[in-house]
């Protein structure tokens, strides 16, 4: 068991480093909402996306506080039995209402401690790099006691804030500046560390940390070579329709079940996301094709083996992530034609979106056919085509089709 004195030293060391930490770009989070309710706030997201910095931004609004980061190597032996001494070590400092626990998923049984703090009147903030942070038994123990924030690398709006670029200049010069910044965003992505240092090896390190520490080690994966090959294939083939059987065949893996499990692990660690085809039948959804998207276009660009430019699929990846940031449930629609995204609420299609680098005679018929088919399926009157830089308003077969630059859609409220 770790002693109170030992834990107190770690607390003091970490708090000094935490208070020296900059707050960087203000994230697009409703801070007032999460601070005004008593529930535990759980922040989950991929490694290095800014979860600790978000805690610092909360701490600027909510102090005094207790803070501990469980990724400290001095806490490798920390277990649930050490939480009582941790609480005593905290209380040897000045009294505090707010408690920030960083990367707490490293400790089995953390949820009981969080619940105890909550019931004692503390406002608790927790971060973790797993989408399963609040699943199954964990969620049942905290039912009704938590709110969840899924944090992604910077959005385009946050990227512009990072670059100190205004979105209010509506002149042609201002729009040209925003398009240039968007091209940079598509190339660099939104990981804060990558934007600071602009070194390709930073992307490789982030990717390897997630693959090894959050996946191979956490899930005790034995077939590491096959697992790495699968991750590499999916990163290289974002936005392409496939299925588990095709993946197993392409990678010469005998077990389709292994492919399914490994894909699930990657999604749980936010390395990539899986999107299925929309269907009224959940069974058909499950057995249908699927598409995969990377956590960040810039990260994918640095680590994926790609032999040709695929800007259209990069734009599609950016749209998928933005839909997730906006709390939408994205699917793709496909029957006779294909629509890149439909959003769904209560099993009803609420929007249909096509994405194209360039909307011209070469793809016009295909893009419109897929969009109109999805609009008809959802009984909608208006659809959206997002491009790199084009604008237009069309009426096709009675449907209103808005063509909008993707950078403009990304900064809209």
Describe this structure in words.
This protein has helices at 4-20, 31-36, 51-59, 83-91, 110-119, 137-141, 156-162, 172-188, 192-197, 200-217, 224-236, 244-250, 256-268, 282-287, 297-303, 311-325, 364-378, 406-411; strands at residues 40-45, 65-69, 98-102, 123-128, 146-151, 272-276, 290-294, 330-334, 338-345, 348-355, 382-387, 392-396, 399-405. With 413 residues, it is α/β, with parallel strands linked by helices. Among the domains are: 4-151, P-loop containing nucleotide triphosphate hydrolases (Rossmann fold, 3-Layer(aba) Sandwich), CATH 3.40.50.300; 309-413, Trna Endonuclease, Chain: A, domain 1, CATH 3.40.1350. A hairpin with a 3-residue loop joins β8 (330-334) and β9 (338-345). The mean pLDDT is 94.
Topology:
Blueprint: H1 4-20, H2 31-36, E1 40-45, H3 51-59, E2 65-69, H4 83-91, E3 98-102, H5 110-119, E4 123-128, H6 137-141, E5 146-151, H7 156-162, H8 172-188, H9 192-197, H10 200-217, H11 224-236, H12 244-250, H13 256-268, E6 272-276, H14 282-287, E7 290-294, H15 297-303, H16 311-325, E8 330-334, E9 338-345, E10 348-355, H17 364-378, E11 382-387, E12 392-396, E13 399-405, H18 406-411
Parallel strand pairs: 1-4, 1-5, 2-3, 3-4, 10-11, 11-13
Antiparallel strand pairs: 6-7, 8-9, 9-10, 12-13
Helix pairs in contact: 1-4, 8-15, 10-15, 12-13
Question: How is this structure best summarized?
Answer:
With 413 residues, the protein is α/β, with parallel strands linked by helices. Helices cover 45% and strands 19% of the residues. A hairpin with a 2-residue loop joins strand 9 (338-345) and strand 10 (348-355).
